[in-house]
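User: Hi! I'm working on a homework problem where we have to compare a predicted structure to a textbook description. Could you give me the structure for the chain below?
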Amino acid sequence: MSPHIKAATIIAPFLLIGGYIAADYFQTSKQEKLLTSEAQRTAAYELELSSKCKIPEATCTLRKDGLLISIKTDNRNFYIESNMELEGATLGLAQPDRVTRGVTMQSFSDNKHWQTAIRTLSNLNAELPLLMRIALVSNGTRYYAEFPITHSGPWGTD
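Assistant: Happy to help. Predicted structure tokens:
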């Protein structure tokens, strides 16, 4: 056996392992950059409650950075008022034991005032907490909130 073949036989496994590690390093780096840029595009921020929400008795106020949101209700509609223009708003009522879907709110007068009709919930379990979930977009930034509300309201109890 020539010395070149002996050297190749000894070095080949190390080159194979080194190439595998290098390929994994560069591929992982590209994937992490892709995931990071995607996460930055879809960043969402949680709105903070200014005070305890007492819907339907009183207005609920949420804020984050410069955005200020007020939520109130009457016997027919939910209303959202904002100090900044919103590109969209979705609202939903949920309980931990069931799957729910949000209702897209409609803008009226300008993009700072939104409303949607209250839908009566069927089989509302009075033993479990009732949560209001809100998602909205302002200036390309997504915001969300989830907070408990009382069972007494036009959304019904069974």
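For your comparison, note the following. The CA atoms of residues 23 and 29 lie 10 Å apart. DSSP finds one helix and eleven strands in the chain. Good luck with the assignment!
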